[in-house]
Amino acid sequence: MTTSPADPSERVAGRAPRRALVAGSVGNFIEWYEFGVYGFFATIIAANFFTPHGGNELEGLVKTYASFGIAFFFRPIGAAVFGRVGDRIGRRPTLILVLLLMTGATTLIGALPTYDTLGAAAPWLLTLLRILQGLSAGGEFGGAVSIMTEFAPPGRRGLYGAWQSFTVALGLLTGAGVAAVLATVMSEEALGDWGWRLPFLLTLPIGLVALWLRLRLEETPFFRAAADGDTGTAPSAGPERVADPREVAGAIVMGAARIMGWAAAGYTFLVVMPSYLQATLNATFQQALVATVVANAGFALSILPAGLLSDRIGRRPVMLTGAALVAVLAFPLLNVLQDPGSSAWVQGAAVFVAGVVVGLMAGPGPAMLAEMFPTRVRYTGLGLAYALSNAVFSGCAGLIITEVIKHTGEVDIPAYYVTVTCAISVVALFTLRGENHRGALPDAARPTTGAEREEETPCG
Q1: What's 119-139 look like in SS3?
Q2: 225 and which of 128, 173, 230, 295 could share a cystine (Cβ 3.0–4.6 Å)?
Q3: Is pLDDT above 90 for 307?
Q4: Which residues of 80-110 are buried (b: 16+ CB within 10 A; e: fewer)?
């Protein structure tokens, strides 16, 4: 009779880890491609759905970002619902369902009649589709990160989890690239009339490829072990162990606080920036998109190295460095963009640096969250922590920044916003245990003994 290895990831062999990376990443790519496209075309969407007969541009953006933010507040609901399903029946079937919902809702946005055609029902239908996207997006993160980290070989969780954030950057970059190409080859009139639909409709063929990949995906060894009642899945020491419902709730709140700066700075610098540059600093649509592409390029380039570095020195020092740098550099970087005397190269360097420092938080972030929860609540726990943080600090970023600027005229609001949120994340990250990146993922398959409890340090 053989015994099960202490770490189910030791059972992984062959192509399963690579398939997990690709299948987990592709749905995430679609999600963030669409969220990016919506942000990049916010001014055009506002004109077509919220201010069809003209009016104040900032007012239209506020309404557009309100629709954007509402979708984010449905993410925690999606994380709770799909997370519960994923922790009960498996990561694979849940991620397939989430993908179908996301692809369908995004494609329908591209076919949705505007206010001029449908009247007042048009913005409500757009908001409904955004809600469906929010539900599916809420179920995507927890499942994708669970898949990636539970298939990761020992000592590689940071790198594997970083692929989730890397595909965020790829999705945003692709969305920005598609928007930039359309803005270049199409007239402003054609782009505002029908060209904006093309990026949303492109989701359908991408979604079909993603579906094929997820249908070929295996269930994770951690979930199979938990479903079989395998008592060999709990690590002997190391990562924090959370089983009690109150501890799970506390871990969700702490996880959300730890990634608050990532959520706020990521959306402010990588998604909201185009509309901010156009509405506040009078940049052209093309100039705003170029700045966003450069920022997302810096973001993409730093994510995987940050995840890999966190496997060697720990999640805490890497994420702390990113959050602290954002807090320190936010005002200087924004002032460079506001200075009419700054050259294009200097402004490009500023937005590139902004993307790089956000990547320092985004690279280790997924693995850090996965290491906070045992297998039977991992999908739900890390999904809720991420969804709650994004609902408040990402989904509301555009709305808060635009509304406050509208009423105060203070153009430094984005810097205030990311500085405060990153400062809070710094405090929360100091509670993170330095050794959580070592050893197996936590599990609650068996109770710990008194001796083991005495050896463990407090949950962090």
Answers
A1: CCHHHHHHHHHHHHHHHHHHH
A2: 230
A3: yes
A4: bbbbbbbbeebbbebbbbbbebbbbbbbbbb
